[in-house]
Amino acid sequence: MNRAITEDKRFYKSLLAIGLPIAIQNLISSSLNMVDNVMIASLGESNIAAVGFANQFFFIFALLSFGINSGSAIFISQFWGKKDVINIRRIMGVALVLGGSLSLLFTALALLIPEQILGIFTNDTEVISLGMEYLIIVCFSYFINGISFSFGFASRSIGQAKIPMFVSAIALGCNTLLNYTLILGNFGFPALGIKGAAIATLISRAIEVLLLITIIYGKKGVLAGKISEMMSFNTNLLSRFIERAGPVIANEAFWVAGMSAYLAAYGRISTTAVAAVQVSNTINNLFMVVSMGLGNASAVMIGNALGANKRDRAIRYARKFSIIGPIIGIVTGGLLILLSPYILVLFEKTPEVYILAKKILIVMALAMSIRVFNTILVVGILRGGGDTFFGFLLETGSVWLIGVPLAFLGSLVFKLPIYWVIGLVYLEEVVKAIVGIPRLISKRWANNVVDHI
Predict the structure, then answer these.
(1) Which candidate, 291, 344, 346, places its Cα nearest to that of 321?
(2) What does the pLDDT read at residue 32?
């Protein structure tokens, strides 16, 4: 009995220490992103859609970076479980090299073929023209983001989630202030529209990475490695990283391609439909912050336990997260239905966008519980346990075999309203849970990936 109580205390203490700062960071990010979208919405529907499509390209980059750093987090969390600082720094080096290379590729593409990139998502020439103005400025923030992602993920993986939370809060606050100044032309500055939004993003990201690196190296902690230490990874470590992180990176690549395919399907309905989706996603993200906190906390806590060769503890943690997640999803889904009409009024929009967004948010709320469970399952349990190939098959299969075909059938063949198309897309979450639960029960996902390194 005493052991169970102690175990519960350890679980909830770790959950709060890791999950709460991540949830707060995401809440701040989503809240300020909503404020930014309110400012951009004042410029009109075409500007909302243009920034949304341009940010979809960044979203692709961010998700691939998320894959690289989720892969590194598998190793860092398990190495931290066995207190192996040398290999933590080596994995950081791998993540920085891969993330930096990816960011340079995406920056080059944004500068060389911006029109073709935006043309993937829409055929509206006005939207493409506006999106190009935004994209060719904001793309210079990609390399900065790549560095921030690596240090931020690593900090969470060793239980120091408060550092990226603090830095992100300051940077996002700066971004909102700069948006207010540059988009709308306040404090004597000219009104630059969406160009101002791009400049604000670039400046705030630079502030973020400078603060993050200053704090980490100022504290001289685990992550404050010399360049020579970070670049000292060997063939064995690199091959292990590719084996486990490769499926995660591929997972994010196929998943983000699926999300882009969804947006392309929505774009074929109308620009109004896309604007409603952008507004809905901005509001929905406010209510998904807890699930991201739970997902990341579960990955770190399970990884730490497995790295310390405490497999039974990792399995108990997975069971607890699997129960907590859907319960929180039901609560947040209910709150989304209750509060979304009041949040929607903040956006300057046409009556058509308001009506569509309200219906889309109801669909999103009804799917919240199962989406939270799947986030914990894939991002937390399977990745924390090193079962990345199964996670890749599960997520990629559900998106491309279920979600994408239904999105295009709904929009192009059946000509359904946007909220019904999104409802069809969410059927992939149901399939994902049905296939994933047996794997969870089997315990085959729980692997120590850092032995003999």
Answers:
(1) 291
(2) 62
